[in-house]
Amino acid sequence: MWRIIATHTREGREIARKEIDVGEVTIGRDADRGLMLQSASVSRRHCKIRVDHSGATIMDEGSANGVLVNGVRVTPNQPTPIGPGVNVEIAEFRITVEPVMMQQPMMGMPGMPMQQPMMGMPGMAPMPGMGQMPGMMGQPMPGMMPMSGQQMGGMPMGGPPAPSVDLVRLIAEGGQFNGRIFDLPPVPEMTVGRGVGNDLVLDDQSMSRKHSKIKRLGGGRIEVEDLNSSNGTYVNGRKVATAQCGPGDTVRFGELSFRIDGAGGGSRAGQGVEGTGGVIAAPSWAKPVFFGLAGVTALVWLLWIAKLVVPGGASKAEVEKALNQRVSEAAEKVAAAKEALDKSDFTKAKDLAEQGLETDPANLDGIRIRAQASRAIDDESKHRQGITELEKNNPDGFTAALRIYDSMSLDSKKRTDLGTSLRNKLIPGGEEFCKKKLFRECFDALCAAGRLGGEKLSPNTIKLLKDAEKRAKVPAPCPHVK
Q1: Of the candidates 247, 243, 241, 214, which has an alpha carbon nearest to the alpha carbon of residue 228?
Q2: What pLDDT, on a 0 to 100 scale, did the predictor assign at position 140?
Q3: What is the pLDDT of residues 90-148, one digit of tens each?
Q4: Is 225 helix (H, G, I), strand (E, B) or coil?
């Protein structure tokens, strides 16, 4: 069983999900697609994902904007292997493909080593041919299941059955913690906040000292309760007092956004995971086997590169020379991309990074620089859109500009600039709405100005806000202005 999840990368919310045993799931803008992504950037019939006993693949069906796998655009009409840990992007959507692991009874004597050779393991396909290797670096081979403390590729790993452990972790998306993984402690209830006395401490200025409370519900699900924080708690973009959520959902504390991963997603090979009922631990040989397979994958990838650049019958020295030359050429392009990025020439940085990745798709600096440049280009575009909306100087324009501001990268300078422009427009605009007796519009504008931070609102502005709150009969006071 495989699970396919589509998530909006900017809004951090799940769009759709599909579970399938064997077969294919079509993706696109048309209503007849298995996963429908409503965006002008997505083609009507964009791509399809196929899964079977050997693993999962994705194939671009000639879309306009393509499919990115680990930051590299795949070749149209050619299946590309994907799976757990592989980053798949379609326009502004992230596609997660993961096996749904089923609990299986242990077979055989405790501690008995495996007698079956590795290539004969159930669920593992033979190593793909040389022509299938592009894009494989850093990806699991087709048919390989991720290692857990109990099984690998469907084969029990020895030892007695371990008790079920409710694993929940928060994966940061954007902001100063971007990409970091926070495993929640194995306690039924915990607090989150800026203060050192919390179970989960997030030192960020948007966090209250004691911001929220998290309760475990089992099965990777949690309940989030806001503790009267200044900047609020949000689940899937909606501000909440108390709400339940689970794997695939997003939770935001102030300005820090996290994707929830659970129900076994927190365990890693070679590392015990403590729970309420004991410890799940992989056997001693699991880690060497894992790194051995990773080494084989890297070796085959290098051989494929060599096959492209070196004529048949070349010597070992010629192969090494050709490989080193391609890596050096890529490194030069990536170094130039970094220089352009430092000078804020984001388009040039993106182009140079892509040129380097065409030569060496495994260059991690190139992947990182291209991602940073792409985000910066996107933020520059959104900044211009936000300023255009602000110039309308009306409630609809302010609302649109605020929405654009919230969709930008949290660490972007352009976001900070737009926030300053917003605040400078919202305060006089809100005061003008109050004079025109547009009290709800006045309240929304002044409250939003308080959320954007900066200097404290003047006593007169706060008085207007409180008066507008009463006259508009707003159901809840502005949480950003005390």
Answers
A1: 241
A2: 44
A3: 988 889 888 876 444 444 444 444 444 444 444 444 444 444 444 444 444 444 444 43
A4: strand
Query: What six digits make up the tokens of 133?
Result: 């290797």
pLDDT at residue 307, as a whole number = 58
Rounded distance, CA 80 to CA 95, Å? 14
Encoded tokens for 198: 């919390």
CB proximity list for 103: less than 8 A, separation 6 or greater: 164
Can you tell me the distance from the alpha carbon of 274 to that of 291, in angstroms, rounded to the nearest whole number?
A: 24
Partnered with residue 259 across adjacent β-strands are 171, 250
- State the Cα–Cα distance between residues 319 and 234, nearest whole angstrom: 55
The amino acid at 270: G
Q: Give the per-residue pLDDT at 134.
A: 41
Length of the chain: 482
318 phi and psi angles, rounded to 5 deg = -65, -40
How many angstroms separate the CA atoms of 393 and 87, rounded? 40
Q: What is the largest CA-CA distance in the chain?
A: 85
pLDDT of 45 over the 70 cut: yes
Compute the distance between CA of residue 473 and CA of residue 295 in angstroms, rounded to an integer. 65
